Amino acid sequence: MRVPSFRRDREPARRGWLRGAPAPRWVRVLPGALVVGVGVATLVSPHSLDIGFLLGAIPPLAGLSYGPLATALMGGATVALLTVPAFHLNDPGETDLLTVLFVAVLSVFVSFVRSRRDAQLGLERTVAEAAQRAVVPPLPERVGPVRCAGLYRAAQRGTLVGGDFFDVRDGPYGVRAVMGDVQGHGLSAVATVASLLGAFREAVLDLPDLEAVAARLDRRLVVDSARSRHAELFATAVLLEFSANARAVRIVACGHPAPVLLRAGQVTEIGIVPWTPLGLGLPDSGPLGAVTVPLLPGDRLFLASDGVWEARDGAGAFYPFTGRLAVLAEGDCADLAERVWADVLRHSEEVRDDVTMLVLTPDA
């Protein structure tokens, strides 16, 4: 759901080198450049140069991006520059040498600790990414007669999965798709996302109508919420079911924005009365409302989460989604979601919500 708080192209900025990403090239080059620069400067100068203080920065800089062995070599080069007479660095005293030597040894130790920590964090991140991709696997390019393209940007730094979810599955009753947004976002919502997607994948195989699939997801959240007195789990979702020949789509919306239809350069908002969100007891709210939309060759359905619809600029104005989509829809639909995302970033100074987009193109 909407919360005040993904890069993006601010995307690389989400995990800078001070936040655990590998050090940039200039940081790795700087220690060697200092060694070479000081060495060359002292060799070509006819007089002693008082620039030995620069050498004290070499071992710590090496420790930021190199392993213990390379850091030790940089420290050795630093000591050599101070002690070899040919470099005549203004005859450093014994205290200066001991200080640089101590800093070099300490930098090797810090580099060793950092390398072990980075290896552990790398392993943990690999495991976390594998687990998160198991929850929301990459979207296939085609499911039955429907071509798919999607984009997912989690709001919480360092995560691949947040409070949004989507999936497209083929089953005995046709191709079905779901997009939703659970209460909360980030890692705290991943368990609910996993539970809903598991229920959806089973319902696609078992239940003959789309309303029953929505009711199954609702029941899943009601059961999960009953396990804790204070859980109160709920989610918004929109579900789609394509006919066997992909010439029509049936849509059920549970508190979530309906898809928009792209046809012949025009963007049309599909009129559907959204039902109550999942987890609040759909059977108690009366029969679900659904609409069936005929599809023509070349039609595309674009689904977007609240992170797109509710993105604001510095003045608080919402992103003009349907108006911009009509302009951005020209071209290959495979990267349409990426174009919209780039446009959202130009509109909004910061996107604080999970962002999900799904483009479905039936080959009718």
Compressed to H and E, one letter per element, the order equals: HHHHEEEEHHEEEEEEHHHE
By DSSP (H or I, 4+ residues per run), the number of helices equals 9
Tell me the span between the first and last alpha carbons.
34 Å
Structural class: alpha+beta
Note poorly predicted spans. 1-14
Q: Helix fraction? A: 25-40%
Strand content: 15-25%
Shape: elongated
- How many β-strand stretches? 11
Global Rg: 29 Å
Mean pLDDT across every amino acid position: 81
> Major beta sheet, specifics?
6 strands, antiparallel
Oligomeric form: single chain
Largest beta sheet: what is the strand line-up? 1-2-11-10-7-8
What distinguishing features does this structure have?
40% helix; six-stranded antiparallel beta sheet; 9 helices; five-stranded antiparallel beta sheet; 18% strand; 364 residues; 11 strands; alpha+beta
Write a structural description.
The chain has 364 residues and is of the alpha+beta class. 40% of the residues lie in helices and 18% in strands. The protein contains nine helices and eleven strands. It has helices spanning 25-44, 58-65, 68-83, 94-135, 190-206, 210-226, 306-309, 321-328, 336-347, and strands at residues 142-143, 146-153, 164-171, 174-182, 235-242, 248-254, 260-263, 266-269, 291-294, 300-304, 355-362. The longest helix is centred in the first third of the chain and has 42 residues, at 94-135.
In short, what is this structure?
The chain is of the alpha+beta class and 364 residues long. It has helices at 25-44, 58-65, 68-83, 94-135, 190-206, 210-226, 306-309, 321-328, 336-347, and strands at 142-143, 146-153, 164-171, 174-182, 235-242, 248-254, 260-263, 266-269, 291-294, 300-304, 355-362. α2 (58-65) runs antiparallel to α3.
